[in-house]
Design a protein that fits this description.
By secondary structure, this protein is α/β, with parallel strands linked by helices. The protein has 22 helices and 24 strands. It has an eight-stranded mixed beta sheet with strand order 5-4-6-7-8-13-14-15. Strands 1-2-3 form a three-stranded parallel beta sheet, sandwiched between helices. α1 runs parallel beside α11, α4 packs across α5 and α16 runs antiparallel to α21. It is rod-shaped.
Length: 810
């Protein structure tokens, strides 16, 4: 039973015209196959497997008769076959042609599922491997920071392979897909109504998805259902799909009639990876002279002309009266781009290149045979071509290398794939159904890794719904600097919450997986999105606190010097002599050194100052306390020895006092020596105690030794306080015990409060606390012990006599 011929795609008629154009160029070119005329035959597969097999077998049959595998016509000599446009078509053709080793140049992408060098050994691909454009799409998505997309693929083996290849690539690059939509595998012979109702159920996925970018894989015939759905959606009160369509080179916007033109508005701003193309010279002029009567050998032009211009070349019948009659003067340039393009498309450019490849291979074979074999007298070169066998072309195809008329270099790699790339094009549509393809980038598979894709952002026109602002396609808003991502439970890794960075950590970029710490000499700013240098912190002579403490230390030192001068001037007076002049002088000198050693704590810590300051402070203060203890013990022993029958007289004297002084001081000096020899203090930088500051300090080396030194001084102070307290009521007008009691009370109070205060402060304030404690405790000793005596010596000299010294307290 006969069936009506299916409607053809008008845009594909350009492939036929390109073939005629290229053959004419070659036949008129004296430098390629001189004196030899190439011919060609075109058959239509209609994207149907049985039609493809029939067309392929027809090439192997007697002309005008379908008798495969018989050669009965000497004039028919098939050298190579060019086609097909779809992977399935190419595979179906190759399954037959490979048996006869006839070279086949596929002008469309060839699925890697079918890429078997053993089965398709005679197949040569004019389009680079699909993996390269998948890599280009991934780089494109990363370039625009689109991490949440929709995947649309045809529901067949090639679609399965596409998803198996692309999904891992997306995941490895941090891109997720919101949904996967499979379109039915149909052809142009399918009932459009069935196709529409199969697809209408999937439409909500397209309009409800949060993703603004859809990555589409499918050949023109397999995408018919999706396109028909987008076309008819407004008639069913369904909203338009305003998205960015990213499509592979397999898909072209093909339309079969004027009624489907409104569909193209959905694809305004689409980004397509297209087969690289150039415009051969004079092709535009060639198209301008085309008419329905230009050649009798073109069996497709009448059907194309009537379908493209919606008219009738012959007188219409009664049933066709609504159609106008074609004048034959219609011009191709007047057709909308969806029906026919005046510029050479990528697949047409492949046809053009494939014809030139065959021509150059035949030319190389002709030259090779002409040089190796002498022609007989009167033998024409064209007769030599009749002896060529298709399988002989393979050797020359693998080594072919030439520049075409458009300036591109053509040659195949070791796998029989043309060494080329892809153009990144931007589709700009117009209300009348026209569109233009603007090249906005290039995908070069042989560029250095990571540099394969080059794109010009400023040339891209986006869909009208985005108001020419680059679309955002993410699962949720980006995490700003200062935040890190936290994955949402049960959702894909592209969907996450944003958490502020923990204290002390930061993030400089958007969407970081984890916050990081700054370098040791830096710290996070307030917003935790940048590391800034830390301020160096130490107690300096240039700041107010350091100046005040330094002036106070110097003032107390001068005051001590004054006291020493008073006592030296009046050293022979009873008040001075009554309290052991030697110990008084040692005590005053120790206090002077205590005040001066506090200056070692001010300024930038150095190795020498760190070694000296605690040791000097501990040793000198221990000497002062030892003097106080010795003076107090002498007073106590003297009064005990004065009692009748007491045996304490042998303990009274300078020997006992000196033993106390040097013994107690020696113990502290031994502790400090052990400290310096085992774990001495050293300059250090504290990066963590105070946020935003580097504390330059003296690390005590051994905290235990430091507190041991303080503890020993505390022990001496407590013993001195106890002894002085017991001796405070001894009868003597110049008894020092009560003054020493008060001084030790001040001393102990200061250092007992020092410990918790010291531990609770950081940085320069910790040093300031210790300096203040040194000055306060030293002032307590100086004031309580020596100021009363200075008062008598300077202001009440009448009391400074022996009678007052011997006077007993009643």
């Amino acid at each position: 039973m006969e069936t009506s011929e299916p409607v053809s795609v008008t845009k594909n008629y350009q492939h036929i015209l390109v073939q005629a154009f290229a053959i004419n160029e070659i036949n008129e070119n004296p430098n390629v196959l001189p004196n030899i005329t190439l011919g060609f035959r075109i058959l239509n597969s209609y994207y149907v497997a049985r039609m493809t097999y029939k067309a392929t077998l027809s090439l192997l049959s007697i002309q005008q008769r379908f008798v495969p595998n018989f050669t009965c016509d000497a004039k028919k000599n098939i050298i190579a076959v060019i086609g097909g446009l779809l992977s399935e078509t190419s595979a179906n053709m190759a399954s037959i042609l490979s048996t006869y080793k006839i070279p086949q140049l596929s002008i469309g992408s060839f699925s890697s599922v079918l890429d078997n060098q053993m089965i398709f050994s005679s197949l040569y691909q004019m389009v680079p491997n699909d993996a390269y454009q998948y890599l280009g799409v991934v780089q494109l998505l990363l370039h625009f920071r689109w991490t949440w997309i929709g995947l649309i693929a045809v529901d067949d083996d090639s679609g399965d392979q596409f998803l198996q290849t692309v999904v891992p690539m997306l995941s490895q690059n941090g891109i997720c897909y919101a949904f996967t939509l499979r379109t039915p595998r149909d052809t142009y012979m399918t009932d459009v109504r069935d196709l529409f109702f199969k697809s209408i159920q999937k439409y909500p996925v397209l309009i409800e998805s949060q993703a603004n970018v859809y990555f589409v894989y499918g050949e023109p015939s397999s995408m018919l259902g999706l396109r028909m759905l987008l076309l008819l959606a407004p008639f069913f009160a369904l909203p338009r799909v305003s998205k960015v369509w990213v499509v592979t080179s397999h898909w072209d916007f093909e339309f079969v009639c004027f009624e489907s033109i409104p569909e193209i508005e959905n694809f305004h701003g689409a980004i397509s990876f297209a087969v690289h193309s150039n415009q051969p010279p004079e092709f535009q002029q060639f198209l301008q002279v085309i008419s329905p009567f230009w050649t009798k050998g073109d069996g497709f032009i009448q059907n194309f002309w009537e379908q493209a211009f919606n008219c009738q070349l012959k007188i219409p019948s009664e049933q066709e009266e609504s159609k106008t009659i074609c004048t034959g003067e219609e011009k191709l340039e007047s057709l909308p781009s969806v029906l026919f393009e005046m510029s050479m498309t990528g697949h047409s450019y492949n046809v053009y290149n494939a014809i030139y490849v065959v021509a150059h291979v035949l030319h190389s074979m002709h030259e090779f045979i002409s040089k190796s074999k002498t022609l007989g007298k009167g033998q024409r070169p064209g007769l030599l071509m009749l002896n060529f066998q298709p399988w002989q072309l393979h050797h020359f195809l693998k080594s072919v290398l030439f520049n075409n008329s458009a300036g591109d270099t053509l040659h195949f790699d070791e796998h029989g794939v043309l060494v080329s790339g892809f153009d990144v094009t931007n589709w700009i549509t117009f209300p009348n159904g026209s569109f233009i393809r603007v090249k906005v980038g290039r995908m070069n598979p042989r560029a250095p890794p990571g540099k394969e894709l080059s794109i010009s952002d400023d040339q891209i026109v986006w869909h009208r719904s985005f108001n020419q602002v680059q679309p955002i396609s993410v699962c949720n808003d980006n995490c700003h600097p200062g935040y890190s991502k936290k994955r949402k439970e049960g959702e894909k890794f592209c969907c996450y919450d944003c958490l502020p960075c923990p204290e002390g950590m930061m993030s400089e970029q958007k969407d970081v997986d984890a916050c990081v710490k700054c370098k040791q000499d830096q710290y996070p700013n307030k917003n935790q999105n940048q590391c800034i240098p830390r301020d160096i912190n130490y107690l300096s002579y240039k700041e107010p606190l350091g100046i005040v403490l330094a002036l106070l230390a110097i003032s107390l030192s001068l005051l001590t010097v004054i006291v020493i001068g008073i006592f030296m001037k009046h050293q022979d007076t009873p008040v001075v002599k009554a309290n052991n002049r030697s110990f008084t002088n040692i005590l005053l000198i120790s206090l002077l050194l205590c005040f001066l050693c506090s200056l070692l704590f001010i300024g930038q810590p150095e190795k020498v100052t760190c070694l000296l300051r605690q040791v000097a402070f501990g040793t000198v203060f221990s000497a002062a306390l030892s003097c106080v203890l010795a003076k107090t013990m002498i007073v106590v022993l003297a009064f005990m020895a004065a009692k009748p029958g007491s045996g304490m007289m042998k303990w009274v004297g300078k020997r006992m006092a000196n033993s106390i002084l040097f013994g107690c001081s020696f113990i502290q000096a031994s502790i400090c020596t052990l400290w310096l020899s085992t774990s001495p203090p050293f300059p250090d930088m504290d990066m963590h105690s105070v946020n935003g500051k580097i504390i330059m300090e003296c690390n005590e080396g051994s905290a235990a030794m430091f507190y041991f030194v303080l503890g020993y001084m505390g022990f001496l102070a407590i013993v001195s306080f106890i002894v002085a307290f017991l001796a405070r009521k001894l009868p003597d007008s110049f008894n020092e015990a009560k003054f020493i009691t008060f001084s030790m009370l001040v001393f102990c109070s200061v250092w007992l409060s020092f410990v918790p205060t010291y531990l609770s402060t950081k940085g320069k304030y910790m040093v300031a606390v210790e300096i203040f404690s040194i000055l306060a405790s030293g002032t307590g000793l100086l004031g309580c012990i020596f100021f009363p005596k200075c008062y008598i010596i300077v202001l009440r000299p009448e009391l400074n006599n022996r009678e007052q010294l011997r006077r007993k307290k009643k």
